[in-house]
Amino acid sequence: MSLLEIRVLGDPILREETRPVEQFTDELRQLIDDMFETMHAAKGIGLAAPQVGRTERVAVVDVDDKPMVIINPEIVVADGKRLKSEEGCLSIPDVYGDVERPDHVIVHALDRDGKQFEIDATELLSRCLQHEIDHLHGKLFIDYLSVLKRRTAMAKWSKEKEKYPGSIRRLTPAQVASHHHRDEEL
Ligand SMILES: [Zn+2]
């Protein structure tokens, strides 16, 4: 397994539509393993393929220590109360904002072997799935912010982004070793 570089806001790939996966190859499974390793190293709870510079419709999530890969995911039901909660993103480090989303979703996806499964989720898992599926369609959490909040977030980002030349965030082994707990970044 290897750590992948994380693309940060400014890299156009974060705004691209992904391509549905049609073949379940060893290369795909390698990508999935590397995405899990990268997400855990970055202490995130979700990571989508465009965030590591790839165009496959694949994301990994890990909420409550339940690692899961979702391939070609589709939200088939989104209902329940609309709840507002703070989100962050591994591709927009140190920027946070309140996003309102429906509390309940049912997602259909394929697993690493191409087998279909269903996830019925509420609370953090639901939020995480919606955030990652947005990534697979070029959408970011900042798109949901009000004009004013978005302006504040972007002002913060204009300073933060200096840390990531070429819109690339590299995780170093030292950073990885120092991670004892996981924040809720997606
Ligand atoms: Zn994200």
Order of strands across the biggest sheet? 2-3-4-5-6
The radius of gyration computed from the alpha-carbon positions, rounded to a whole number of angstroms, is: 16 Å
Q: Quick one: biggest sheet?
A: 5 strands, antiparallel
- Give me the count of strands: 7
Helix content: 25-40%
Structure write-up:
- It is a single chain.
- The chain has 186 residues and is α+β, with helices and mostly antiparallel strands.
- It is 26% helix and 30% strand.
- The strands form 2 sheets. The protein has a 5-stranded antiparallel beta sheet.
- Strand 3 and strand 4 form a beta hairpin.
- It starts with 5 loop residues before the first strand and ends in a 9-residue tail after the last helix.
- The model has no long low-confidence stretch (mean pLDDT 94).
- The structure holds zinc ion.
- Zinc ion binds next to helix 2.
Please sum up the structure shown.
This protein is an alpha+beta fold and 186 residues long. 26% of the residues lie in helices and 30% in strands.
Can you lay out the helices and strands and say which pair or pack?
Blueprint: E1 6-7, H1 26-41, E2 46-48, E3 58-63, E4 66-87, E5 97-110, E6 116-121, H2 123-135, H3 147-160, E7 168-169, H4 173-177
Antiparallel strand pairs: 1-7, 2-3, 3-4, 4-5, 5-6
